Amino acid sequence: MILSILLMVLDHRFHQTETLRSTLTVLTYPIQFLAEVPSDIGRWVSDALQSRSDLQTRNKQLLHDNLKLRAELQQTAALQAENERLRDLLGSAYKIGNRVLVAELSAMDLDPFRQQVVINKGSRSGVYEGQAVLDAHAVMGQVTHVSPFTSTVLLITDVEHSLPVQVLRNGLRTIAVGSGRINRLELPYLPNNADIRSEDLLVTSGLGGKFPPGYPVARIIEVKRQPGKPFATVVAQPLAQLDRTREVLLVWEISVPPQFPDQEETPAANPQRPVENEAAAP
């Protein structure tokens, strides 16, 4: 004990044992290393297993978060697209200037020989038979059947639909008839000498009492004049996106306001708009 005290005093005051300490540390390092090997191995194994478990848990969480974020991103993209469509519709309504109602497509008709859709607005919203239906670009069709909560819309390309139109360039009036194809209208009542060309814009003429005048309908894509035949072959392409539109506009003319029941706040069907036959002679 006296020797230990003496060595500590010498080391503290005169630093005489530094060389001895260094030498002893080098000599005892292998023994210290071997003594710490089991503890180091146990710590490494524990860290390795814990890291693998943590990585697996974190990987699962990241996969879950990634899937959730991708789903939210899809919803965001859908909402953004819907926003753009609604803005287009509102812009179209502003240009129209009439009283309008936005509706959504809820079903397609199952009849393969008819081109019609079902919308989620009916007589409780003031929808009536024969009412004009548009999308953000042009005329889509007209309402043919109304129930309290839904309505059936006959598209302008249906073979039983005909629409009085006029050429915007010169005011020439005629009838656009559905061909049964979603991207094709026919104008069968134009004589060979009619002043009509490709790229002419067709708009509603207002005749027939169904569609207010001035709504865009289609653009001429083909004109064939055959000698010896009284009428030219004229084909037009609808401007409405009939196969892609999700939201539509139901239009009331300013001069024909919808009827509202006294007991409810929602509009009722307009009984003053009878169903007429659009397939009248031009």
Commentary on this structure:
It is built from two helices and twelve strands. The protein has helices at residues 2-13, 18-96, and strands spanning 99-108, 116-119, 132-134, 139-146, 151-155, 162-167, 173-178, 185-186, 201-204, 216-224, 233-238, 247-252. The strands form two sheets. It has a six-stranded antiparallel β-barrel. A six-stranded antiparallel barrel has the order 6-7-8-11-10-9. The chain folds into two domains: 23-96; 99-252, Rod shape-determining protein MreC, domain 1 (Thrombin, subunit H, Beta Barrel). Helices cover 32% and strands 24% of the residues. The radius of gyration is 40 Å and the shape is rod-shaped. It has 282 residues and is α+β, with helices and mostly antiparallel strands. The relative contact order is 0.14.
Per DSSP, what share of the residues sits in E-state strands of 2 or more residues?
A: 15-25%
First-last Cα distance: 128 Å
| Average residue-wise pLDDT | 77
Shape: rod-shaped
Helix/strand/pairing category: alpha+beta
Give the number of helices.
2
Q: Which sequence of SSEs, written as H and E, runs from N to C? A: HHEEEEEEEEEEEE
